[in-house]
Each structure stands twice: as structure tokens, then as C-alpha cells.
């Protein structure tokens, strides 16, 4: 299927979604976000897809929400169309989602990367929240996910100063998993996604859910939620297969059941 704002491919068990508005540095228009959430929804219910990579391609990830689309909006319009509320659908994707970031990931672009489960950054990557320079603040998680990842002081620097940070610093802060040469960012992300896609799908889903819950729940409740998922997985064929394959010294064949 063709999309106006995305390129969508499959590499085996991995869906590769490329933001594709190069003339405006992949500015995230409502139409783009609508397509993105639709595509993710589709892959979520396709059993052959085990993981996805989200990228902007070799030059830029995304320079933020589309300023031309927002400039003259009224608050009422913003509420009615729930501009950034719709983006949160990205976080309902239940399979591993890897951001492959080259160049600018600014404003909503940075927030979109932070919604993913892992981030592979090219050495050209720049992460930042320049909204302050536009007289606004981030609206898709920038003030919330930065402190949870990089701590309050870095979050303040980024949100109040508006200056992006470079890939290497993002790595030191724990914001990205790996920094690689920009020409191989997407390749590395796809290889990693292939590895994640080969794991037991239900275990991957519940591991992702449990890690995300750790950011929202008190420790006691988080541990209880983890334990419930752990016990539940003993109801799956994949748990039996995984453990017996280990004991029989052979590779496991997971079926997602
Ligand atoms: N929205 C709409 N158009 C954008 C855009 C955006 N976020 N970012 C870049 N563009 C457009 C430019 O207007 C320009 O279009 P024209 O060729 O028609 O003039 C084109 O993309 C290329 O951009 P530049 O000429 O500016 O490229 P540059 O290399 O000189 O600068 C940049 C690159 C530093 C990223 C600069 O484009 C920039 O600062 N962009 C805006 C970044 C920003 O403020 N993002 C936050 C948006 S608000 C937000 O995201 C809110 C939220 O939380 C959801």
C-alpha cells in the first residue's frame, strides 16, 4: 500500500517505516501521524511481523511537528483535534519498536524517538526540544520523558535552552542504545530488530509492557505486575518449547502461542 508521508517496507519479520517529507525535514503533520499510527496498528496485528524500525532515512529523523500547520491554530482547535494526544497511539504498539535516528530529531521528532523502545543513533544525530524558541513547550512528552531518562537537570537544560545535544552525549546520558556511523544506522537498527523479532513474541510483548509499567507504577506494584506476567507465560507453548529446547541443547522454535 502507498502512503503520502511514509515509505513502508518489510524485511522478513521486521517492518521498516521511513518518514518521508524530505522537503520539510520530515515535519510531523497530522496526516503523517495519522498514517504512522495506522501503519503501526496494521503491523501490530500481523503475526509475521515481530518488530519495527522507525526512521527518517539517512539525513534527518524529523524536525518536529509541522510549524506551518500549527502557527495559526487556536486553543479550541488544538483541543478538538487533539494534536499530540493522537501521537500517543505510537506507544500502544505492542512489539519492539526501534528508532533509527540520523540528523535532527527535534521537538516532536525527538519526542517520537523517545516513544520508541530502543534508539540507534547515527553519529550525525542531534536530539533537542527547541519549542521554547517558538514560544511554546513540548506537547508530546518532551518535558516528561527527558527527566525520566536523563534526569531533571539535563531535561531543564534541553527544554529551557532549546539547544540540541549531540549523539555521543545522548549516548552518555543513556538516551540512546548505540551510536554508529550515519551510513549504517538503519542497517544496524534492522539487524537488531531482526534479533528481537526472533524471540518469543508473547514474552517480548509482556517484557515491553512490564518495563514501561516500571516508569508509571510504584516498585511494589511494578514487581507484582511483572510477577503476574512471568507466571502467565508458563501457560504458553513457547515457554515449554524454550525450556525444553534449552535442556535438549537445540535452538527453540517459537510460535507466538
Ligand atoms: N515544520 C515545518 N517546516 C519545517 C520544520 C517544521 N518543524 N522544520 C523545517 N521545516 C522546513 C523549513 O521551513 C524549510 O522549508 P522551505 O525550504 O520551504 O523554507 C525546510 O524545512 C528546510 O529547513 P531549513 O531551511 O530551516 O533547514 P536548515 O538546515 O537551515 O535548519 C533546522 C534545520 C535547524 C532543523 C531548522 O529547520 C529548524 O529549526 N526547524 C524547526 C525545528 C523546531 O522548532 N521544531 C519544533 C517544532 S514544535 C513541536 O515539535 C511541538 C511538539 O512538541 C509536538
Automatic annotation (TrEMBL):
Sequence intervals crossing the membrane: none
CDD domains in alphabetical order: crotonase-like
Family stated for the protein in its record: Belongs to the enoyl-CoA hydratase/isomerase family.
Keywords: Lyase
Protein name: Enoyl-CoA hydratase/isomerase family protein
Domain of life: Bacteria
Pfam families given in the database record: ECH_1
Residues spanning the signal sequence: none
Molecular function (Gene Ontology), one example: hydro-lyase activity
Keyword NADP: no
GO biological process: one example: fatty acid beta-oxidation
Amino acid at each position: 500500500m502507498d502512503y503520502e508521508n511514509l515509505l513502508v517496507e518489510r524485511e522478513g519479520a521486521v517492518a521498516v517505516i521511513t518518514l518521508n517529507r524530505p522537503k520539510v525535514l520530515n515535519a510531523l503533520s497530522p496526516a503523517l501521524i495519522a498514517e504512522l499510527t495506522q501503519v503501526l496498528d496494521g503491523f501490530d496485528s500481523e503475526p509475521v511481523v515481530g518488530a519495527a524500525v522507525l526512521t527518517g532515512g539517512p539525513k534527518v529523523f524529523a524536525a518536529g511537528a509541522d510549524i506551518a500547520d500549527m502557527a495559526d491554530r487556536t486553543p479550541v482547535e488544538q483541543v478538538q483535534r487533539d494534536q499530540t494526544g493522537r501521537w500517543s497511539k505510537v506507544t500502544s504498539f505492542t512489539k519492539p519498536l526501534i528508532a533509527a535516528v540520523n540528523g535532527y530529531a527535534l521537538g516532536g521528532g525527538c519526542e517520537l524517538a523517545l516513544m520508541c523502545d530502543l534508539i540507534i543513533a547515527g553519529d550525525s544525530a542531534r536530539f533537542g526540544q527547541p519549542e521554547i524558541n517558538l514560544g511554546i513547550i513540548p506537547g508530546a512528552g518532551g518535558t516528561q520523558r527527558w527527566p525520566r531518562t536523563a534526569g531533571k537537570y539535563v531535561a531543564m537544560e534541553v527544554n529551557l535552552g532549546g539547544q540540541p545535544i549531540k549523539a555521543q552525549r545522548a549516548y552518555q546520558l543513556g538516551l540512546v542504545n548505540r551510536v554508529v556511523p550515519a551510513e549504517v544506522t538503519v542497517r544496524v537498527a534492522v539487524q537488531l530488530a531482526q534479533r528481537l523479532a526472533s524471540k518469543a513474541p508473547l514474552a517480548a510483548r509482556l517484557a515491553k509492557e512490564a518495563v514501561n509499567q516500571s516508569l508509571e507504577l510504584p516498585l511494589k506494584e511494578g514487581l507484582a505486575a511483572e510477577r503476574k506476567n512471568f507466571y502467565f507465560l508458563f501457560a504458553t507453548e513457547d515457554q515449554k518449547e524454550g525450556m525444553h529446547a534449552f535442556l535438549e541443547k537445540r535452538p527453540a522454535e517459537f510460535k507466538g502461542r
